[in-house]
Structures are given as structure tokens and as C-alpha cells.
Amino acid sequence: MLRKLALFLLLGLLPAVHLAAGEVLRVVVTDPYLDLHTGPGRGYPITRSVPRGAHVEVLFQRTDWIKVRSDKGKEGWAHRSQMRRTLTTAGGALEMSGPAADARDDGRLTHGS
Amino acid sequence: MARSWNSLARYAIWAVAVLGTSAKAQEAVGIGPGAKPEVVVPQVEQREVKPAPVLQQNFETGLFVGSISIQDFGSVAVYGGRLAYHLTEDFFAEATFGAARAGRSSFEEMTQDSLVARDKRDYRYYDFALGWNALPGEVFIGRGRAMPSALYFSLGVGETSFANDHMFTATLGAGYRVLLNDWLAAHMDVRDQVYDIDITDHNRRSQNLQWTLGLTAFF
Q1: Residue of B156, B145, B140 whose CA lies nearest to B195
Q2: Which residue, among B214, B149, B142, has the nearest Cα to B180 in the 3D structure?
Q3: In angstroms, rounded to a whole number, what is the distance separating the alpha carbons of residues B14 and B5?
Q4: A16 vs B217: CB contact, 8 Å cut-off?
Q5: DSSP state, B178?
Q6: ipTM of the shown complex
Q7: How far is residue B77's CA from residue B25's CA, in Å, rounded to a whole number?
Q8: How far apart are CA B207 and CA B219, in angstroms?
Q9: CB contact under 8 A, B133 and A41
Q10: What's the pLDDT tens digit per position in A23-45?
Q11: Residues in chain B within 8 Å Cβ distance of A4
């Protein structure tokens, strides 16, 4: 039983290993402020914000929330709607999962016309 | 005299040639009288830089141990695993499997008889559930550490194998998840497994409560 448990434990936690590696992605905030929540959800409070022009490091995305780290080393969760308005260091948009940046606007135009 | 005419003609030809060339050259750069304005076409093409996509972390997998109260067969240890996919910040889909070994019922203890053979006491189940993160919150440890948490409810269906039978099972559960770091979460989960079982030759509804503690990794 214990041996089985140990094996399960090892197999279960293996996926976490891939998180160790990965290149750092930095973006520039273009909104007046990038609001950082304490957790990946709208119910978690905003405890920090990053001003326009400042850089943040993009760590990973979970559902619609992206964990970022500011230049001062503070971490928080930003919503993808704000993150899609940031710019990468190459001047382009950040590539995230989910609907495209203008999908909602296109949808509204289609339904409204 | 002929020689001087010759030199004059040569100078004239040179002059026409030079003037013509310079006029052409002026037209070519767009400053002459008959020149067409021309936009300078850049010779260097801009390189398209495509940043790496953001790392996704919507799957969650892990293991749990705890206790299950198999109705009539006592409380025994249970262990298993779960795989969840977070659809949105509110909802997740989860597949769970678990295993336990049923104890002896009170009837069996009193009569020294066996309702379920020794080799049929393995209790196995799996289910698919939809979870709802109902109450997001935070856990504070000391003054400088806060970890996001969530109270969730789940509703699912699956199958339980026990006493040489396979029962359709409905599950109803609630749990508490604390994110320990970027990829590791701790769970405390309570789940009721409901199915109809006919060990005593007539169907009866069986409620089987289990509570577990588990660790999961996001990836």
C-alpha cells in the first residue's frame, strides 16, 4: 500500500517539473494601471498596481488570469483583458490562450448590424 | 583650323553627354524638372519577432489519502488520484479515482458470517464531476505570507465496484483548495457517494461519505 502510494505521489507530481525551465517574457503596461489581484479570480482583492510604462514579467496563465512579476519583484494576477493591451519588448501583442483580442468587438458589431 | 574644329566638336559632344547624364541623374533622384516623386523603398525588410506564447497552467493533477465510511462496512482508509481541468476561474471539470478495502459489517461481526467474500472487499470507484469555485479567499500564515484559497462544490457521476457488483454512482462534494505556491495546491475534500446496492437481495440506497487530504500540481 505504501509503495503504491509513493509511486502515485511521484507520478502525480511529475508534471510540475516542466515549470522549472522557460524563457522570461516581459511586457510594457499601456493601460493607466495594471491591477494585480492576490489570486486568479475577480473575487480576490487588488492589492497592487503597476503604472503605465513599467515592465512586468509574465510568468504563466491560468484560465483568464496571468501571473506577473513587477520590476520591484512584487507578484500578482492580472486579467487577460488588461494583459492583451500590454506590449512585448518587440512592440507586439502578447500571445495568450482564449478568444482573440478583438473577438468580442467583432461579435458585438455582427450582432448589432 | 581643321584641328580646332575637331576639338570644338569633341568638347560639344562631351558637354551634351555630361548635361544629359546629369539631367537623367536629377530625374532619377526626383529633383529635376520632369522628375516624378518617388517613395524610397526600403531594402531591409523588418524581421517579424514572435514572442513565446504564455505558459498555460489549466490542468491540475494529484493524489489524496483519507477515510471513507462505506455504509454498513465501517470506516476504512482510502487513497486515489484526481485530474482536473480549469475551464474558467469559476468552473472546473474533474476526474477522480479511488480505492479502499471494506471492513466487516456489524452483522458479520455478530454472526461470524460473511456477507461479502474476502476477495470481493476491494472498493474501487471513479467519477467525473463539475466543480464550482464558490468562495475565493486567502489564508494568512504569519504577517508576511498570504496564500489564495477557494471553497468549491462539485457534482458528478461515476461507477463504484464493490462486492462483485458495479454500481452507478452520484457524487456530491465540497472542498477547500489552498495554493501553496505557483504550482502546488493542498486540498481538503469531503464527498458523498450515493448508489443502490443489493447485497442483501434487495436494493437499498447507500451513502458513503469520504474525507480526504491531497496535494495537486498545476501544469
Answers
A1: B156
A2: B149
A3: 14
A4: yes
A5: E
A6: 0.72
A7: 93
A8: 34
A9: yes
A10: 678 888 888 999 999 999 999 99
A11: 79
